[in-house]
Amino acid sequence: xxxxxxxxxxxxxxxxxxxxxxxxxxxxxxxxxxxxxxxxxxxxxxxxxxxxxxxxxxxxxxxxxxxxxxxxxxxxxxxxxxxxxxxxxxxxxxxxxxxxxxxxxxxxxxxxxxxxxxxxxxxxxxxxxxxxxxxxxxxxxxxxxxxxxxxxxxxxxxxxxxxxxxxxxxxxxxxxxxxxxxxxxxxxxxxxxxxxxxxxxxxxxxxxxxxxxxxxxxxxxxxxxxxxxxxxxxxxxxxxxxxxxxxxxxxxxxxxxxxxxxxxxxxxxxxxxxxxxxxxxxxxxxxxxxxxxxxxxxxxxxxxxxxxxxxxxxxxxxxxxxxxxxxxxxxxxxxxxxxxxxxxxxxxxxxxxxxxxxxxxxxxxxxxxxxxxxxxxxxxxxxxxxxxxxxxxxxxxxxxxxxxxxxxxxxxxxxxx
Amino acid sequence: xxxxxxxxxxxxxxxxxxxxxxxxxxxxxxxxxxxxxxxxxxxxxxxxxxxxxxxxxxxxxxxxxxxxxxxxxxxxxxxxxxxxxxxxxxxxxxxxxxxxxxxxxxxxxxxxxxxxxxxxxxxxxxxxxxxxxxxxxxxxxxxxxxxxxxxxxxxxxxxxxxxxxxxxxxxxxxxxxxxxxxxxxxxxxxxxxxxxxxxxxxxxxxxxxxxxxxxxxxxxxxxxxxxxxxxxxxxxxxxxxxxxxxxxxxxxxxxxxxxxxxxxxxxxxxxxxxxxxxxxxxxxxxxxxxxxxxxxxxxxxxxxxxxxxxxxxxxxxxxxxxxxxxxxxxxxxxxxxxxxxxxxxxxxxxxxxxxxxxxxxxxxxxxxxxxxxxxxxxxxxxxxxxxxxxxxxxxxxxxxxxxxxxxxxxxxxxxxxxxx
Lengths: 417, 420
Known about the structure:
The structure holds two protein chains of two kinds. By secondary structure, chain A is of the alpha+beta class. Chain A has helices at about 40-50, 60-70, 105-115, 125-145, 150-160, 175-180, 180-190, 205-215, 265-280, 285-295, 325-335, 340-360, 365-375, 385-390, 395-400, and strands spanning about 1-10, 10-15, 25-35, 75-80, 85-95, 120, 125, 195-200, 240-245, 250-260, 300-305, 310-320, 405-415. In chain A, a hairpin with a 4-residue loop joins strand 11 and strand 12. Chain A is globular and about 60 Å long. In chain B, a hairpin with a 4-residue loop joins strand 7 (about 90-95) and strand 8. Chain B has helices at about 65-70, 75-85, 110-120, 125-145, 150-160, 175-180, 180-190, 210-220, 270-285, 290-300, 330-340, 345-365, 370-380, 390-395, 400-410, and strands spanning about 1-5, 10-15, 25-30, 35-40, 50, 55-60, 90-95, 100-105, 200-205, 230, 245-250, 255-265, 305-315, 315-325, 410-420.
């Protein structure tokens, strides 16, 4: 894998040359710090930009153009990492090696049209398109009630999160309803205040494509701010908060959250993932063996660590009558992380699993793009450096996290069926 | 080893068939750092009746999936430790067509193959373990039941199929799995987990000759039980049970499904693989994001989100299912009926959709797990690997398409609705 970097007009372009894939990907990433309060506007914006553009001013015209480009696909999403917001627009299209023609420049044109030529008149998004997108967002929000896992995660994060992820990624109903075409357009203009980093990934993407992109964007003014300190220090509660809700589902959802105080950067990036894998990473984990295999209380149980926020959440689907037993067992598993013998028995397995997971980097274009664009913002090490550091994590370092762990929240969505 | 060259892509699959009937498919790709090993038995959720030693047996729905759980239970501590030492991730899944056991890893492929094969071929279970597993699978069933689209699909299947095994869910019901005991499960395992009924697919980074030799050495040491097991097809009727069902469920917008059933004999002059492709092109033309029908319904606030539609073959019938979220179900049904009674798809649209399929074909060989899943499906479904799909796609033609669409109009319809 070969990487070349070009900078002009405050835009950074990373050209990643790899023959691993049959598709090329162009990714435009807009990056800035965030407090999360505008999450609902970001969600809105991405949906409307992908609905249509000024040139392809109906959904059908937009969709047909992509089909003409051999079913190229344009996606947009955003993620929050610590207090960093990353808005990404990607186009994936077939490499010219497999076609009669090259469609590199058309793919660039289509992506730039999507982002920079929205269907706007007089500083307002087109009303008809806006109304359709708004209705879709509202319906999707109401439909969260139909999905117990999504519903429970949303509800849990309101009790648990300290940073921007406290705010729903899709927004609350009142927020969504308050947006109009002009408010959304004013928010759209703010993306030009964000850092713009671009990645081109594929087999032999020529340098003239990077030059072509820069030429197309030369009349726009972009900023570039230094962004650092993206990690969040969690707020430790004096007492664990327990909240419950009832809904008409067959299965109940249980989420148990913990926060770690004063983790160093090394502990966040390397020790916490090992701790997490031992506790609830996969079928070898303490949670899986105790709660599922020995006590048959669930089909799935796992833990997820967020090292940007120093948190760990255990989630499982259980029968409501097993709530008390499940809590007892989960807490026992977390206490078991104090047991040196348990850690010694499982640390090598967890390292090996992490090593296998690291290898997926070489099979995943999105991972390669993410690393090339975000390594400075998030202080990411290369895959091989990560491997070295993970392999060197000591038992005592994992045990050391037990002094820093704090109970935080329990949320139980009780099924009534 | 026979080399199968995938047309147009220059991808190569290597096939070996052993004397005992076991098949090996290998797809080396050294651009990846990992490998994916699978071992599959041709025993899936649709297999509900068989003959062995001249006696006929019924199988409880959900048995294939239940057996998958017990085969893959990793009770053997030694094997578990070996897997752990390699950092590999084992898993398994059951479809209507077969049950597949897999390992994803990056170190010592032969060891991984040995462990996976040992796990599958050294099945051993007690009644206590079976009872414990019933609780776990009961939770899995409850998890599925909380998916409103699962519920909708169940309603359709219960009414569009009369005898077909596709009427039953892969997991079965709690009542079905409660009937399972050791004697029964051992008997099923013995009948279907025989090397003559199984095959392995390996994709990713590995040495071709070395791995092929390793598997041959492993499998040829095993004796085929020489089961005279014959799967008995269950004849499905052309009729349906009820043409409309509705159910009260905790949904915010009505969920509806229109399903159409047609016997494959209506398409006797055509290649059925092409028929399914043509019908999916029809679905995409009528209901995807390029469809004016979809746009009109959204503008008139009749539906929300997208319409999903798919055509699939279920033994001797083809089904098309169209699923949507609607604010006014009666009006929606009328609009859909109007559309389907007068289907008009121009040649430009047809050619554009054909391009989509060609793209998908090109991209099918990107991911080693996807390739493995695809080869596994083809072997289960067709008993061979398709090497000429590109030609088939390229040769799809508009006139034939119109004839297929015309025949589709003879199908019977079932409607289902979930409402608050």
